[in-house]
């Protein structure tokens, strides 16, 4: 089902960026702080920093003043000593940046020596050598009043003697790095009276906002943007450094901030240029921020394509092999197929690409890209994935969430046979009784004969609640929203459909045993107990963590500020036992039980420890194999009307998929406490109708255990993906999004535990202490893992900057890993803030590891438009019809038989899952001007069409290349790519065993700007709303 048109989002550039965080001066470390602020502003460099520098960058990303003590200690820096920022820049590149980051600063100059008069038979050029550089130190002369003039002086040919012959030594730019660092030679040495002395040159130098530099090519000159400036004020003997950084290098004028240790302020471009140019004279007389003794010292200029990458817009061309030959990669990706080397030639581009940095040359498999320090992944030779978890001092790890959803993720949701039908009746005022009778008829069949009740097209008006009270019953509507169940109830808080047995469970007498471990760590699958004599494999059990007043005090919940009865209540121990439903997976020995799912919160003897007891249901127990699918639910009244569309109560191994909900006051799908192993997927909640206040608009609520919400969408809700009081996990919200959000995503109140928020996109996301909100909500949750989330004001109703807040209660942790947010806050565990990590999905990777399946970052692309795997949403974020001959997504779909994204043609022909590629998964290129993405376009057998596939399997037929666009303004426009040729290699045994398939032509599938989901900047190729 397609998403209806959303209200126009505010331009990302309309809202100012938050000020950067400052850096604490540890003594005389202003030179270090100014340099770190400058390179932190370059995302490609930031993502390749190594510890402890990456730890400093993480603190900056978290929005707090960062300390550099770990870095200065490692490098042996005397913080009392003043140092030269230019010299330290070289040391930092050598010691603290990975080779990929150093490459961002690495260009080359061509050094040549030419004889002034060559004799007969003698070559005029006697030496030609390309020499790499990471910065250019240019001399300052009376004529070098601008950067271009200073560079011209630097590259001016010099006369010399070569083997007693008159010659000329010349240097010219051979290749430009993505980020050009120019150090102005402000410190001049002189020798007099047997004494060496250094003095500072105060020569004013005007900085260009755009710099064009020629390189040896028939192409136009390279254009660079001003990205950062390090200013020195003072003299050689004394002085101070600070930096100006441009957070929006693509925009005219940029978005500038001055970073002077912990003092950070927003400034204009005019202020930057005035202060950086400086004036002749001594320090202390007023002339801009720094005074007359302040001048630019190191200037960072960024290539347009690098600036686009940092702002979230990368020009690309998508190419594929022509013809029907799939070279054996038609159905699956494995180590038998890989590109070893590709040479592309065009009138505007020449690439000689070495894939060794991203493809394992022995196996042909894709190498993992940027990873978290808390969970690391390794791609195995057979395309499977292995994960390793970092433990804290007490042994806690991020839990395994992979056993959530229908049948614990071990089986696909079935498509059951239709056993009954019901048609809409025109003019019928209330179809409740007729629908309920049809449901009951299916429920009365023998269990093995039950199946789907198929609704005909049209609208069924429903006045009161419908119930499913038997297993094996599925309600199914017509595809694409052709069936609507319209609630006509005028009763506040009514529910349209309730699924559940109505049964209740309780403790089995005599089975309670104490947990004897002093400390059970998060992520553990085993428990030590007094005795396992009463337990067998498959027993339903409940683990109860005792709660003492000491624990309540330790997390501050007995002293919630401004919390007085009857409006607010402090927490009391007897109301806050934490319980988790599990099954016995193995009776290991007389005192050890292995569980079917991990512990998701520490159990400590110091707070009373815990216990285990068996559970039994009074009669039928939970329903199973119940489904609700392909239906549209709607409500036609405001506030006094049905609040929930679908509620699951005592249910397991069941599902809700492909439903739409319109106008309900509270939930589209509400999974209650007793729901278990239920999947909610590809569902949408639109425009809930109620006043916007507490107790309303919880679009997808999950309060059970081992439940999965996947591929869903919400618009105009409040807490769109949410959990309530003391919900015990594991539970997962995965690959879902929200727009026009009026409140945050995350655990809502009173200590939900063990939830993975995986690849969610929305407004605010928080795991924190809500204090006296509600009636004393306090800590919303613990062991809450936000993985590769995107938090942006574009998705909030207010349009204002949004925050990701990760705080941790005492004794437990909350995590923000690989999350990209307008603002970041909280004292919890933040890792790789501002940059998504590999694997893209923790849940999908954990499931692949547990089941032994190949793990794919992406799979084939012609998929249903219902959110999970939506091509335009996941690969090319909101890519519109910028190009005359269609976008990448449209052309891929047209190649697949015609039609546009989401049309039936593509959906019927291609079975596929996600399409997503992290822009940080970059491959090295022989040409510094270009970067190659670690993903591939493949053809699927007779279906045809360019479809994406990549991951641990590493199959590749053709490539998507990011190239510098030479169109209008350099930041967008049409590309002219033609006459491509590819050399295709099939993997053989050993380097000499490769076998070439010659002359495989490439077709240009599409072009535009790749706008990764982790970036919130504007795509210049998109049409404006």
Automatic annotation (TrEMBL):
Taxonomy, superkingdom: Eukaryota
EC number: 3.4.19.12
Top EC class for this record: hydrolase
Keywords: Hydrolase, Protease, Thiol protease, Ubl conjugation pathway
Catalytic activity: Thiol-dependent hydrolysis of ester, thioester, amide, peptide and isopeptide bonds formed by the C-terminal Gly of ubiquitin (a 76-residue protein attached to proteins as an intracellular targeting signal)
Coiled coil spans: none
Family matches, as PROSITE patterns: USP_1 (PS00972), USP_3 (PS50235)
Transmembrane segments: none
Bias type Pro residues, positions: 1-19
Keyword Protease on entry: yes
USP domain residues: 21-304
Region of interest (Disordered), ranges: 1-20
PANTHER family, sorted: UBIQUITIN CARBOXYL-TERMINAL HYDROLASE, UBIQUITIN CARBOXYL-TERMINAL HYDROLASE 30
Family: Belongs to the peptidase C19 family.
The protein, known as: ubiquitinyl hydrolase 1
């Amino acid at each position: 089902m397609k998403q209806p048109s959303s209200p126009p989002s505010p331009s990302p550039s309309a809202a100012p960026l938050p000020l950067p965080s400052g850096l604490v001066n540890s003594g005389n470390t202003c030179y270090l702080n100014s340099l770190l602020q400058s390179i932190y502003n370059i995302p490609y460099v930031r993502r390749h920093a190594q510890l402890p520098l990456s730890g400093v960058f993480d603190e900056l990303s978290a929005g707090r003043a960062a300390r550099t003590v770990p870095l200065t200690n490692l490098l042996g820096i005397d913080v009392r000593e003043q140092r030269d920022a230019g010299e330290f820049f070289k040391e930092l590149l050598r010691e603290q940046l990975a080779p990929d980051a150093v490459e961002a600063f690495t260009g080359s100059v061509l050094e040549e020596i030419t004889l002034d008069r060559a004799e007969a038979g003698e070559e005029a050029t006697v030496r030609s050598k390309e020499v790499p550089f990471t910065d250019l130190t240019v001399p300052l002369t009376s004529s070098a009043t601008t950067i271009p003039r200073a560079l011209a002086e630097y590259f001016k040919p010099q006369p010399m003697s070569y083997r007693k012959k008159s010659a000329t030594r010349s240097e010219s730019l051979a290749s430009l790095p993505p980020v050009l660092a120019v150090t102005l030679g402000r410190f001049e040495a002189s020798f007099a009276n047997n004494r060496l002395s250094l003095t500072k040159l105060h020569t004013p130098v005007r900085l260009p906002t755009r710099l064009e530099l020629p390189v040896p090519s028939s192409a136009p000159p390279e254009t660079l943007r001003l990205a950062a400036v390090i200013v020195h004020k003072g003299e050689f003997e004394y002085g101070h450094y600070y930096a100006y950084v441009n957070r929006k290098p693509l925009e005219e004028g940029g978005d500038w901030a001055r970073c002077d240790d912990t003092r950070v302020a927003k400034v204009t471009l005019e202020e930057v240029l005035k202060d950086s140019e400086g004036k002749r004279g001594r320090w202390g007389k007023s002339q801009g921020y720094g005074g007359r003794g302040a001048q630019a010292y190191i200037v960072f200029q960024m290539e347009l394509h690098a600036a686009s990458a940092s702002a979230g817009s990368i020009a690309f061309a998508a190419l594929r092999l022509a013809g029907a030959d799939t070279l054996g990669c038609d159905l699956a990706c494995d180590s038998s197929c890989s590109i070893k080397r590709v040479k592309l030639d065009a009138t505007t581009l020449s690439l000689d690409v070495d894939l060794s940095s991203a493809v394992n040359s022995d196996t042909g498999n894709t190498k993992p890209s940027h990873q978290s320090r808390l969970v690391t992944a390794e791609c195995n030779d057979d395309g499977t994935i292995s994960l390793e978890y970092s433990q804290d001092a007490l042994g806690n790890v991020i839990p395994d969430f992979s056993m959530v959803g229908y049948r614990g993720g071990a089986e696909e949701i079935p498509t059951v046979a239709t056993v009954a039908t019901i048609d809409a009746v025109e003019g019928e005022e209330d179809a409740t009784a007729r629908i309920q009778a049809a449901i009951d008829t299916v429920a009365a069949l023998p269990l093995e004969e039950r199946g789907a009740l198929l609704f005909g097209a049209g609208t069924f008006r429903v006045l009161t609640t419908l119930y499913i009270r038997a297993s094996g019953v599925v309600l199914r509507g017509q595809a694409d929203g052709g069936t609507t169940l319209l609630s006509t109830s005028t009763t506040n808080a009514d529910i349209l459909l309730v699924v559940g047995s109505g049964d209740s469970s309780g403790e089995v007498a005599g089975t309670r045993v104490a947990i004897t471990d002093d400390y059970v760590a998060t992520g553990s699958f085993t428990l030590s107990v007094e005795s396992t004599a009463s337990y067998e494999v498959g027993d339903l059990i409940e683990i109860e963590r005792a709660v003492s007043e000491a624990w309540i005090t330790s997390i501050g919940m007995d002293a919630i500020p401004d919390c007085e009865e009857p409006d607010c209540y402090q927490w009391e121990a007897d109301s806050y036992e934490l319980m988790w439903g599990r099954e016995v997976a193995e009776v290991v020995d007389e005192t050890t039980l292995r569980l079917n799912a991990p512990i998701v919160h520490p159990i400590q003897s110091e707070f009373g420890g815990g216990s285990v007891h068996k559970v039994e249901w009074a009669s039928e127990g939970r329903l199973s194999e119940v489904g609700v699918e392909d239906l549209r639910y709607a409500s036609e009244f405001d506030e006094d009307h049905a609040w929930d569309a679908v509620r699951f109560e005592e249910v397991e191994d069941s599902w809700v998929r492909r439903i739409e909900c319109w106008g309900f006051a509270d939930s589209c799908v509400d999974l209650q406490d007793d729901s278990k192993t239920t999947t909610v997927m590809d569902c949408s909640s639109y425009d809930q109708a109620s006043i916007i206040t507490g107790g309303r608009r919880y679009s997808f609520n999950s309060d059970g255990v081992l439940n999965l919400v996947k591929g869903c969408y919400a618009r105009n809700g409040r807490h769109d993906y949410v959990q309530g009081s003391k919900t015990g996990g594991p539970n997962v919200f995965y690959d879902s999004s929200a727009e026009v959000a009026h409140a945050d995503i995350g655990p809502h109140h009173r200590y939900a535990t063990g939830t993975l928020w995986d690849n969610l996109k929305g407004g605010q996301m928080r795991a924190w202490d809500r204090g006296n909100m509600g009636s004393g909500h306090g800590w919303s949750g613990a062991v809450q893992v936000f993985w590769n989330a995107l938090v942006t004001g574009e998705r909030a109703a207010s349009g204002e900057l949004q925050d990701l807040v990760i705080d941790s209660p005492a004794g437990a942790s909350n995590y923000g890993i690989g999350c990209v947010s307008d603002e970041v806050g909280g004292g919890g565990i933040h890792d790789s803030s501002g940059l998504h990590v590999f694997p893209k999905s923790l849940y999908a990777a954990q499931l692949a590891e547990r089941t032994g399946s190949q793990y794919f970052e992406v799979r084939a692309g012609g998929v249903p438009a219902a959110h999970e795997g939506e091509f335009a949403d996941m690969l090319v974020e909101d890519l519109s019809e910028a190009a005359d001959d269609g976008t990448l997504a449209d052309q891929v779909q047209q190649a697949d038989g015609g039609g546009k994204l989401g049309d039936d043609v593509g959906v019927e022909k291609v079975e596929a899952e996600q399409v997503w590629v992290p822009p940080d998964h970059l491959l090295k290129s022989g040409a510094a001007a270009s970067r190659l993405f670690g993903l591939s376009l493949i053809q699927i057998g007779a279906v045809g069409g360019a479809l994406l596939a990549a991951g641990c399997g590493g199959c590749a037929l053709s490539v998507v290349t990011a190239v510098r666009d030479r169109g209008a303004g350099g930041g967008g426009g049409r590309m002219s790519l033609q006459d491509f040729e590819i050399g295709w290699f099939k993997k053989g045994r050993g380097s000499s065993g490769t076998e070439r398939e010659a002359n495989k032509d490439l077709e240009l599938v599409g072009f535009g700007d790749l706008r990764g989901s982790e970036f919130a900047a504007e795509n210049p190729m998109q049409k404006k709303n």
